């Protein structure tokens, strides 16, 4: 049986940086300083928030940290006592449970918001989540409306870009009122420059998994990279992290090293991970020598691998384009099908694994159609499994194991027959 | 004609399969196009102005067995999404030339893509409504979005739509909505004259016919109602909230009424009554339509308006209708409704308005449990 051996310097560095980020949040909570802005992950405009020296706080990241530490269930149940349904998104419930528990998480104390910045990017639950938080906290809310990419071209329309830029200007005026200082244009350009270079490195890192063996797992290990990509984008620390990660991973390519001693299957993963059972879930795949060479989950915050870069010379336009066009959740299912198809073809994958999560209907609703498209129309072996990203009550290890084992047995047989 | 006869005509139309319901219009308009719209709200006026018949597609109700769509949408997805796809997979959307979906929730967004892929011959469009109504930019955005939809509709019909066409359509829908508002006034003032189920059938017939015909049907019903003489019943006055998209079975509404409630107001079939006031027909029609959405449209969980708290419109509706209680009637797995229930519950408790929470599915067919629950609730209020 294969076990994961790779931990690497990158993981240690990530832990240190994320530790520092959470220490900063705790300091903000304790001193009441730092102008906390509560934000969402998908296609967020963190560059603007950082330009005002505001502290970005991500309830989604907090929720997943609670999930990984298996601390989410009591908080979910607390929210359910308040009237939330068993069928509502468990990220939201864990977060609202945390709020009503005094914002004290095991990894940080979360500062109360001075701005609730809802960056609506495709996900309707985002809107509701932040509307509710605004009512509970009494903090000012700004709801950046990002029209879903809806034309057949899959491109953002010029009208839409102008509309988003106009709203960003309104947001700037609001941040100026909250922080009491004007936007520093030079600082914004510098931050966008850091984000642009981070984008270069991230895109390069994601292309390294085209090598055989893949130097890292683009689902499970990509999570290590996603923390800094979202929480620390637009900072010098974040950029340093990606420089080190790139050189470490490129070195692994030169040495022909992968996360497993033997890479037997290359898979594409669709859907977020089951955080409370991350290790168990991973082992179900590593046991078969399966390595994810690409994942859609790692693109929820942006699609740099397909060419997007923040542009210091077009600051607001490029932020708008990132939000509109270059993140997974603001796109249609069709565009996601095309993205996965490109992964399968260019990254040389053997199969598609769809992890369907009850909490995130934007991600999941209709994935049966995706399975139909890949298995029947394209002939790509496709496995659909279900659990949840946060709620441990929806994870059945035995059932999951049976499905995964049966799938890889068949895949192995198929390989043998082909050979 | 008696009002009962008019209601029966409405019922026959609502119960008919889509192709049969559309037959008269198809015969009268052999070249005409029919475009289906998914809840909640759709700019029906734009299609109508282009000579298209906009038809509401409210899922399959309890008339349809989900056999194929279950393999595309998971068990945790609401019924209307699956039954709408099932209609397509069993050939029942062939009566339509196109479908319009809207930015109301996550599964609806994905459904638009799945329908596009599975029915390539169908013209499919997705309308994004502005979600930031505090921004002055929302109006210009929505005007541009409506213009885009008009262009796309022109692709379908080959017919350019002018301002006069649009004004005629705004007026036609204003007329039909004014009569729907009158039905709701009657229910609030003298609920014994018109039950919620009867009113529902009269309104729902309107999603299957042009607004001019619907206005005529409602005139006939209103005429008939004036002759009704029924004594008020000893019931509590309730408003229903949470059924803005998937529609509860008629029998469920009936059960709530029979359990001792007069349903004064509800959020059923919001698409044909979204605007609270007439859309102005002078000036730029697209702008008037956009402004009406932003400043003159009814609240629901899927209209995001940060200018007031989420429960305020519900409290206003309950107080304005002198309701004794609120029935939160949410479709199973409907995230927007289920989320907002938490805020409604808090606000209703604080305002001292009793409420009961019920979940439904369009496919449900046993109503005893709901009836008992509502009866218990009503009794607790009557003998409190």
Give a topology summary.
The complex is a heterodimer of chains A (419) and B (384).
Chain A: H1 8-31, E1 36-38, H2 46-51, E2 55-57, H3 59-68, H4 72-81, H5 90-99, E3 115-121, H6 124-137, E4 141-146, H7 158-179, H8 185-207, H9 222-231, H10 236-255, E5 265-270, H11 278-286, E6 290-295, H12 315-324, H13 333-346, E7 351-357, H14 361-364, H15 367-377, E8 382-387, H16 397-418
Parallel strand pairs in A: 1-2, 1-3, 3-4, 5-6, 5-7, 7-8
Helix pairs in contact in A: 1-9, 1-10, 3-5, 4-5, 7-12, 8-10, 9-10, 11-16
Chain B: H1 3-15, H2 18-28, E1 34-37, H3 44-49, E2 53-56, H4 79-89, E3 98-102, H5 106-118, E4 123-127, H6 137-157, H7 163-189, H8 196-205, H9 211-226, E5 236-241, H10 250-258, E6 261-265, H11 285-295, H12 312-320, E7 325-331, H13 335-351, E8 355-360, H14 368-382
Termini gap of chain A: 23 Å
- Globular, elongated, flat, extended or rod-shaped: what is the shape of chain B? globular
Report strand order across the widest sheet of chain B.
Answer: 2-1-3-4
Shape of chain A: globular
How far the N terminus sits from the C terminus of chain B, by CA atoms, comes to 43 Å
**Assembly state here?**
heterodimer
What is the percent of helical residues of chain A?
40-55%
Helix content of chain B: 40-55%
Give a count of the beta strands of chain B, DSSP E runs of length 2 or more. Answer: 8
Structural class, judged by helices and strands of chain B? alpha/beta
Lateral arrangement of strands in the main beta sheet of chain A: 2-1-3-4
Q: Which blocks of ≥5 consecutive residues of chain B have pLDDT under 50?
A: none
Largest contact between chains: A-B, 53 and 56 residues
Count of alpha/pi helices of chain B:
14
Largest sheet of chain A: 4 strands, parallel
Largest sheet of chain B: 4 strands, parallel
What is the C-alpha radius of gyration of chain A, as a whole number of Å?
21 Å
> What is the arithmetic mean of pLDDT of chain A?
96
Structural class of chain A: alpha/beta
What is the averaged pLDDT score of chain B?
96
Strand percentage of chain B = 5-15%
């Amino acid at each position: 049986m294969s076990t994961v051996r790779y931990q690497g310097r990158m993981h240690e560095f990530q832990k240190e940086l994320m530790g520092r980020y959470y220490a900063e949040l705790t300091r903000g909570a304790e001193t009441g300083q730092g102008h906390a802005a509560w934000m969402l992950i998908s296609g967020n405009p963190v560059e603007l928030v950082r330009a005002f020296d505001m502290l970005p706080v991500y309830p989604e990241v907090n929720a997943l940290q609670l999930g990984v530490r298996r601390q989410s269930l009591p908080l979910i149940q607390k929210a359910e006592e308040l009237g939330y349904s068993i069928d509502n998104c468990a990220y939201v419930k864990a977060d609202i449970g945390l709020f009503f528990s005094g914002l004290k998480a095991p990894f940080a104390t979360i500062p109360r918001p001075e701005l609730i910045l809802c960056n609506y990017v495709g996900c309707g639950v985002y809107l509701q989540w932040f509307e509710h938080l605004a009512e509970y906290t009494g903090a000012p809310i700004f709801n950046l409306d990002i029209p879903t990419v809806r034309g057949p071209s899959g491109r953002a329309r010029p009208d839409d870009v102008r509309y988003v830029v106009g709203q960003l200007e309104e947001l700037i005026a609001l941040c100026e009122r909250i922080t009491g200082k004007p936007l520093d244009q030079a600082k914004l350009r510098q931050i966008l420059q850091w984000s642009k270079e981070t984008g270069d490195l991230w895109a390069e890192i994601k292309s390294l998994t085209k090598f055989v063996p893949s130097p890292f797992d683009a689902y499970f290990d990509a999570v290590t990279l996603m923390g800094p990509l979202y929480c620390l984008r637009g900072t010098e620390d974040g950029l340093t992290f990606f420089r080190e990660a790139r050189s470490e991973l490129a070195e692994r390519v030169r040495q022909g090293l992968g996360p497993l001693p033997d890479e037997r299957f290359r898979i594409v993963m669709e859907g977020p991970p089951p955080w409370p059972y991350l290790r168990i879930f991973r082992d179900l795949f590593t046991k078969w020598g399966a390595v994810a060479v690409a994942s859609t989950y790692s693109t929820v915050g942006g699609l740099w691998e397909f060419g997007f870069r923040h542009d210091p010379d077009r600051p607001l336009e490029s932020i708008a384009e990132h939000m509109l066009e270059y993140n997974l959740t603001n796109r249609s299912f069709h565009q996601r099908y095309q993205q996965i198809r490109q992964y399968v073809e260019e990254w040389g994958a053997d199969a598609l694994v769809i992890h369907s999560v009850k909490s995130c209907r934007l991600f999941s609703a209709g994935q049966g159609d995706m399975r139909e498209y890949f298995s029947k129309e394209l002939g790509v072996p496709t496995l659909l499994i279900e659990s949840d990203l946060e709620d441990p009550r929806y994870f059945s290890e035995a059932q999951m194991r049976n499905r995964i084992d049966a799938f890889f047995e068949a895949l192995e047989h198929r390989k043998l027959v082909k050979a | 004609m008696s009002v009962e006869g008019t209601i029966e005509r409405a019922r026959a139309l609502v119960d008919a399969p889509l192709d049969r319901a559309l037959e008269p219009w198809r015969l009268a308009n052999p070249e005409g196009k029919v475009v289906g719209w998914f809840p909640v709200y759709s700019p029906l006026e734009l299609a109508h102005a282009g000579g298209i018949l906009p038809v509401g597609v409210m899922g399959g109700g309890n008339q349809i067995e989900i056999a194929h769509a279950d393999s595309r949408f998971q068990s945790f997805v609401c019924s209307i999404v699956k039954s709408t796809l099932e209609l397509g997979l069993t050939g029942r959307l062939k009566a339509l030339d196109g479908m319009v979906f809207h930015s109301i929730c996550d599964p609806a967004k994905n459904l638009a893509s799945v329908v596009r892929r599975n029915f390539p011959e169908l013209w499919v469009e997705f309308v994004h409504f502005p979600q930031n109504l505090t921004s002055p930019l929302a109006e210009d955005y929505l005007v541009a979005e409506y213009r885009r939809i008009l262009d796309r509709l022109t692709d379908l019909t080959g017919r350019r739509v002018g301002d006069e066409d649009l004004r005629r359509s705004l007026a036609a829908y204003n007329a039909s909505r004014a009569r729907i508002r009158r039905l709701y006034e009657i229910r609030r003032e003298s609920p014994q004259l018109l039950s919620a189920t009867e009113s529902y059938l009269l309104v729902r017939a309107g999603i299957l016919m042009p607004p001019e015909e619907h206005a005529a049907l409602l005139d006939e019903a209103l005429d008939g109602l004036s002759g009704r003489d029924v004594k008020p019943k000893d019931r509590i006055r309730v408003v229903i909230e949470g059924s803005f998209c998937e529609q509860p079975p008629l029998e469920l509404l009936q059960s709530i009424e029979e359990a001792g409630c007069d349903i004064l107001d509800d959020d059923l079939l919001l698409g044909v009554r979204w605007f609270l006031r007439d859309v102005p027909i002078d000036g730029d029609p697209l702008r008037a339509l956009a402004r009406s959405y932003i400043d003159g449209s009814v609240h629901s969980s899927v209209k995001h308006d940060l200018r007031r708290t989420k429960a305020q419109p519900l409290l206003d509706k309950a107080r304005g209708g002198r309701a004794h209680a609120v029935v939160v009637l949410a479709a199973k797995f409907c995230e927007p409704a289920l989320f907002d229930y938490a805020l409604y519950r808090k606000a209703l408790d604080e305002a001292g308005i009793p409420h009961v929470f019920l979940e439904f599915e369009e496919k449900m067919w046993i109503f005893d449990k709901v009836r008992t629950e509502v009866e218990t609730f009503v009794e607790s209020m009557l003998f409190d």
